[in-house]
Design brief:
single chain, mainly beta, Immunoglobulin-like, six-stranded mixed sheet, five-stranded antiparallel sheet, globular, signal, DUF1735 domain-containing protein
C-alpha cells in the first residue's frame, strides 16, 4: 500500500524492470480509490402539473392486508373546466413517498370522457412491510396528476364493511350497481367499456359489480329485489342493457355472477364477524336474485367467491314505475 505515496517522477527513477511492475499496480490502486462510487439512485420524483381532478373512492388511503391479498382500488377522474381529458393511467409501487420505483402495471387506457371511475385489482407483495401505490393520470402535453394509497402488508383486515349505501331502482336517477369488495357505487357509464383518446378500447368496471337494485315486476304489485348484474341484464325482465355516454351507446350486459340467500334466523348484522360470515349457507347453487324487505338480513356470495351479509336499512317507497331507492349496509370477507 506504500506504493500510493510514490509520485510519478519518483517512479520514473526506478529500474525499468521494477517499473514494469509498479506502474500497473499504481493505476489499479488509484482506480480503486475513486470517489465516483456506484451510480446514483435513478428513482424519479412524480410531477403533479396536470389539470384533471382525481379522487380516491371511497375516500380511503390506507389499507392493512395480508401478504399476497388482492386489493380493489378505484379512482374518480374528472376533467377540469378548460382543462384536458385524461388519457392513460399508470401505477407505481414505491418504498419512498414521492418517487417512482417499480411500475406495477402496463399503462391503462382511460375513456376519452369528461368523467369516469376506474377500478383496478392490485395484489399486495408477499412479504410484510409498507408499500406506497401511486396513481399517475396522464393528460396531453406532458401533464400529470398523482395520488397514492399506503398498503401495509402484515395486517389482518378480515372483512370489509360499507354502511348506508343508497342504490336506485332501474328508472331512478340514483346509480343502481354496487361492488362489495371496494365499496364503490357505479353508474351505467362507469360500467360500460369506452374508447380511449387514441381509439383503443378502454375497459369499464363491469366485472366488479355484484349487487344491483331492481323493482320487480315492472308493474304492480312490485317487489324490491337485489340481484347480480348478469341477472339484471338478462332477457327475463326486459330492463335496459345499454348506456349512452357522451353520445355513444355501450352494452352493460354480462359481468360475473353473484348469489343470494336468506340469512339464518337470528343473524345479527351489527355483531357478525369473520367467523359468522364464513359460516353462511350461500353458494353457487343459490339464487342470483332475492326479494328484500326493510330490516331484513341476507347472505350473499360475491363475484370473487367471498361470503357476506346485507342488511336493508331502508326502502322509502316502492313505486310501480321503477323509481325509488334502497339503503343497505354490507359486510364481506376479504
Amino acid at each position: 500500500m506504500k506504493l500510493l505515496n510514490y509520485s510519478f517522477a519518483t517512479a520514473m527513477r526506478l529500474p525499468l524492470r521494477l517499473l514494469a511492475y509498479v506502474l500497473p499496480v499504481m493505476v489499479l490502486l488509484s482506480s480503486c480509490d475513486s470517489t465516483d462510487g456506484d451510480p446514483l439512485d435513478q428513482t424519479e420524483p412524480f410531477e403533479n402539473n396536470g389539470t384533471v381532478n382525481i379522487e380516491l373512492v371511497p375516500n380511503k388511503n390506507n389499507y392493512s392486508v395480508a401478504p399476497g391479498q388482492k386489493v380493489i382500488l378505484s379512482l374518480k377522474i374528472t376533467k377540469a373546466t378548460g382543462g384536458n381529458r385524461p388519457q392513460k393511467l399508470r401505477l407505481y409501487e414505491t418504498s419512498t413517498v414521492g418517487t417512482k420505483e417499480n411500475e406495477a402495471f402496463e399503462k391503462i387506457d382511460l375513456k376519452n370522457t369528461d368523467e369516469q371511475t376506474k377500478t383496478i385489482e392490485y395484489t399486495a407483495p408477499n412479504t410484510n412491510g409498507t408499500t406506497y401505490l401511486y396513481f399517475e393520470v396522464d393528460e396531453s402535453g406532458d401533464k400529470y396528476k398523482t395520488t397514492y394509497v399506503t398498503i401495509t402488508v402484515g395486517g389482518t383486515e378480515a372483512y370489509a364493511q360499507w354502511d348506508n349505501i343508497t342504490l336506485g331502482a332501474q328508472a331512478d336517477a340514483t346509480a343502481s350497481r354496487f361492488a362489495s369488495a371496494s365499496g364503490i357505487i357505479y353508474t351505467s357509464c362507469d360500467l360500460a367499456n369506452g374508447t380511449s383518446a387514441d381509439g383503443t378500447t378502454a375497459e369499464g368496471n363491469l366485472k366488479y359489480v355484484d349487487i344491483v337494485y331492481r323493482i320487480l315486476p315492472k308493474a304492480a304489485p312490485v317487489t324490491p329485489t337485489l340481484m347480480s348484474n348478469p341477472e339484471a341484464t338478462s332477457d327475463t325482465y326486459g330492463f335496459s342493457t345499454s348506456a349512452t355516454c357522451e353520445g355513444t351507446t355501450f352494452s352493460t350486459k354480462g359481468g360475473r355472477d353473484s348469489y343470494f340467500a336468506a340469512a339464518p334466523v337470528g343473524t345479527d348484522f351489527a355483531s357478525a364477524d369473520a367467523t359468522v360470515l364464513n359460516g353462511l349457507s350461500v353458494s353457487t347453487s343459490s339464487a342470483k336474485s332475492i326479494s328484500v324487505v326493510k330490516g331484513g338480513t341476507y347472505a350473499f356470495l360475491n363475484s370473487d367467491g367471498q361470503k357476506g351479509l346485507i342488511y336493508v336499512n331502508d326502502i322509502p317507497s316502492v313505486p310501480n314505475n321503477g323509481t325509488g331507492t334502497i339503503t343497505i349496509s354490507v359486510k364481506v370477507l376479504r
